[in-house]
Task: structure prediction
Amino acid sequence: MKKTMSMLLAALALAAVGTVSAAQPDSSRHMAKGVPCTACHGDAMKAVPTRDTCLTCHGPVEKLAAKTEHLNFTSRMKNAKTGQTVEHKALVNPHDSYHFGTSLACSECHSEHKASRNDCSTCHDTKAWKIRPLGAE
Ligand code: HEC
Ligand code: HEC
Ligand code: HEC
Ligand code: HEC
Result:
């Protein structure tokens, strides 16, 4: 009877992790840096982290945006006909960008258990912008 009970408890413990998903993740990038699973998924391992969860450690978002502000650059375009050069600041900071400001969900680009990808690359050449490819993290 005692044995059956401990087996049942073991099964329940597995089921509790399973509420996040059927499958176990291959790896956790943060775990390697000492951040436990529960910091993102909650003590019950139920929650999928939201932007607010990420920002409890990496926020406020203005502070995060300041870290990648150096990625913005001055774009110079010469008009061949007029000979005039037009300059403007290209706002490519992924955390405070031209289109979206600071509003994007982290999951648009960052993943935890699979390769991340910069969503701006769908339409732009982010390599030319000298932004680190996220898949290499
Ligand atoms: C409990 C605090 C905590 C939470 C919650 C958290 N992180 Fe982190 N994060 C860290 C720590 C600590 C590091 C390692 C920092 C370092 O190596 O300098 C890190 C590193 C990172 C890095 C890599 C930084 C680099 O230099 O390459 C990214 C990207 C990141 N976190 C994104 C996220 C996202 C997205 C979420 C939400 C899903 C999140 N973090 C939730 C603490 C946290
Ligand atoms: C549009 C894509 C995109 C979104 C959305 C995004 N990030 Fe990032 N993030 C990046 C890229 C690209 C880098 C690497 C920039 C570089 O250094 O070249 C990065 C870098 C980081 C870093 C390391 C910063 C450093 O240099 O120390 C952290 C931490 C991070 N992101 C957290 C977050 C969090 C938290 C969110 C949600 C609030 C978020 N990111 C949303 C694309 C994104
Ligand atoms: C930094 C936050 C963070 C940490 C730490 C973390 N995860 Fe996750 N987890 C996520 C995010 C974000 C997702 C959504 C998919 C993705 O980005 O890979 C996820 C998805 C999952 C899923 C799949 C959920 C679904 O419904 O598809 C499981 C299971 C899971 N995590 C378990 C774990 C375990 C076990 C650990 C510890 C080894 C852990 N996670 C550590 C953020 C985190
Ligand atoms: C669905 C396609 C699409 C995505 C995704 C996208 N862009 Fe754009 N972007 C465009 C188009 C089209 C233009 C030109 C029209 C305009 O200015 O709105 C543009 C213009 C820009 C410009 C102005 C050009 C300049 O030289 O100043 C910047 C900066 C920019 N995008 C940054 C970003 C960043 C950063 C991301 C990711 C957070 C991103 N874009 C994601 C389609 C996209």
